[in-house]
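Progress against Task 2.4 (sequence-to-structure conversion) is shown through the following example record, which the project officer requested during the mid-term review.
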Amino acid sequence: IDLSDWKALLQRLLHPKEKVTVGIVGKYVQHQDAYKSVFEALLHAAVGEQVKLEIKRFEADKLPQDASQLTDLFHGCDGLLIPGGFGERGWEGKIAAACYCREHKIPYFGICLGMQVMAVEFARNVLGWKEANSTEIEPKTPYPIIALLDEQKAIHELGGTMRLGSYPCSLTEGTLAYQTYRAKRVQERHRHRYEFHSDYRKEMEKAGLVISGTLEGGSLVEIVEVSHHPWMVGVQFHPEFQSKPTEPHPLFRGFVQAMHSARHL
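Structure tokens generated for the chain above:
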């Protein structure tokens, strides 16, 4: 049996060269197993980069809704990650956290709901659409940046409206996602109900939101980035489900690399 990969992993784990600190902004952070896959994927990436990982947990519903009040709270964090979730609780706190990262050029990784948070924050504070929202949070918003797709609206059973399983994603050359994956096409697992509303795509792209990944053969937005930012990426899928100890997921590894670089600025 060849254990060389495993032995190399243990050496990196036991002998880290430096440390990175990531803040997790969610509403289930008090439960050890709620974001277990995310924590594990972060650890895989940290070991891959031979750095020690420190995780700070922030309850989204207890955060100030003004990004200017978050500096002291997030002091010492090299980056923030907003994982998936459902419902209104903590939504505005997550919006403030995304705004803080965008304005202060701090690495940000949004997964599923975290990607939707990133898109809504951008619409509100870059384009000035202050009432922009997700229809999950505010059904009557005049700017439904995130919405339930037409083909899903006719389905009334809660579980039946979800997009589940593995789907192919096409990446745009020259983007951060393309550079991170080093591929034109990837396959990722999904578990969500609401999507980025394509009606707002052109205006948001003009303002600096980069659509770097779309559903292969379709127009559904899978990955968004913020231009002129070191590393601000949101994905509609769940990359943590495909990370392995000896094969960290490219996006988690890219995020850890960005946090490591930010620590030396």
